[in-house]
Each structure stands twice: as structure tokens, then as C-alpha cells.
Design goal:
Elements (H helix, E strand, L loop, with lengths): L1 E2 L5 E4 L3 E4 L2 E12 L4 E8 L6 E4 L3 E4 L3 E4 L3 H5 L5 E6 L26 E6 L6 E4 L4 E3 L2 E3 L1 E7 L5 E8 L6 E6 L3 E3 L5 E2 L3 H5 L3 E2 L6
Parallel strand pairs: 1-19, 3-8
Antiparallel strand pairs: 2-14, 3-4, 4-5, 4-11, 5-6, 7-8, 9-10, 12-13, 14-15, 15-16, 17-18
Length: 207
């Protein structure tokens, strides 16, 4: 048996996203403010490594099958990239062999090549939900996070969890009041058994 959540919007990772001129890709990550528990940004793009940070204010409508943005395709392309790349210079070597110089020393030590580091961009003080992240229950990990539910004012009301095995899998909505921390993954104060006992949610009937 499944329950229906009224007047709340589902944001499921993997959902197709369009703008006013056509396809923008898919929802890859969801960003929220853990202090206010408000949805702030969606990470959207055809390629997760070329996705954009979309402020939630640009969401015109959302449902289990489609998220519609109010911006144009050119406006979407001007949004901030959701990934950043930096060149990180290794620390100067303090020992080890030196090439050249012979018996008189004074050899040349080749400088280390900088490392290229790519990371997800998340606004300061905020956290993200990513595909297939495990939910941390009070007595261990369970299921995979699918997304969240948000009220019309964008405050998060539930975390969507895909729970169970292949033939008995269901989606449940974990109340945000049970989330105790989201800094390093979502941690809740419910046990795995209590999470399994939550009723399945019917996303197709949300409004």
C-alpha cells in the first residue's frame, strides 16, 4: 500500500529538465541549506561534468517525470558551472635524489608537475544530495537516496529513499524532522527497521 503526499513537490535525481526552449538535460545533484532546511539549487545538465547550478527560483514547475525551468537556453548556459577545476602545486621537495651535479653537487631537481583537481561546487554552508548515496540510519546504512520533497516555499519536508531489494524495492519519504545531520551524508534518528516500516510513497500522485 502506498501513501500520497499532497501539495509537495518531488525532486528526484535523474529527472528530465527542460527550459523555455527545450531540453536542458537531467537533475544530477540537489543542494540544500541544512540550517534552514530549504532547497536552494539544482545541478542540471546533459553531462554531469558540464552541468549548471540552477537557483530554485528558476523552477517553474516540477513533478516525478519533468522539471521545467523558466529561463531560456541561453540563460541556462550563463548560469554558474556546477564543477570547478584547479591546478594544485605540490609542496616543494625536501629530500630525495638530485639529477646531475656530479661529485661537486649543485644538481638540478626537476619541479613537480601540478595536480589537476576537479570538485563539485556547493555554496558555502550548504550540502548536496547525490545519486545512490546511502542513508545513515541510527543502526547502520540502508537504501539509496533518490531525492527530496519540498513545500511550495521550497522548504524540504522529506528525504526520498529507495529501500529494499530488486523485487521488493519501494520508495519511502523520510520526514525531515528525523534528519539529525546532513554534513557528511544524511543521518537520521530512525533505525533500519523503522525505515523499512515507513509506507511507500506514490510520487505519481503528488501535486
Amino acid at each position: 500500500m502506498s501513501t500520497m503526499i499532497e501539495k509537495e513537490t518531488p525532486y528526484a535525481i535523474g529527472t528530465s529538465v527542460t527550459c523555455s526552449e527545450g531540453d536542458c538535460g537531467r537533475l544530477h545533484r540537489i543542494i540544500m541549506d541544512p540550517g534552514t532546511r530549504a532547497l536552494t539549487h539544482l545541478v542540471v545538465g546533459r553531462d554531469p561534468h558540464a552541468a549548471r547550478l540552477v537557483p530554485v527560483s528558476l523552477v517553474g514547475s516540477a513533478g516525478p517525470d519533468m522539471i521545467v525551468l523558466t529561463c531560456t537556453a541561453s540563460g541556462f548556459d550563463l548560469l554558474e558551472p556546477a564543477e570547478a577545476t584547479e591546478m594544485v602545486q605540490p609542496a616543494a621537495p625536501t629530500g630525495g635524489p638530485v639529477s646531475g651535479g656530479g661529485a661537486l653537487g649543485g644538481g638540478y631537481r626537476a619541479p613537480a608537475k601540478p595536480d589537476v583537481v576537479t570538485y563539485d561546487r556547493v555554496p558555502a554552508g550548504e550540502v548536496q544530495l547525490v545519486r545512490n548515496e546511502r542513508l545513515h540510519a541510527a543502526d547502520g546504512d540502508i537504501g539509496h537516496i533518490k531525492g527530496l520533497m519540498a513545500a511550495p516555499d521550497h522548504h524540504v519536508t522529506h528525504i526520498l529513499l529507495s529501500e529494499g531489494h530488486l523485487w521488493s524495492r519501494k520508495e519511502v519519504a523520510v520526514p525531515i524532522r528525523n534528519v539529525v545531520d546532513a554534513t557528511y551524508g544524511v543521518q537520521v534518528d530512525l533505525t533500519r527497521e523503522e525505515l523499512k516500516d515507513l509506507p511507500a510513497v506514490d510520487l505519481t500522485r503528488t501535486s
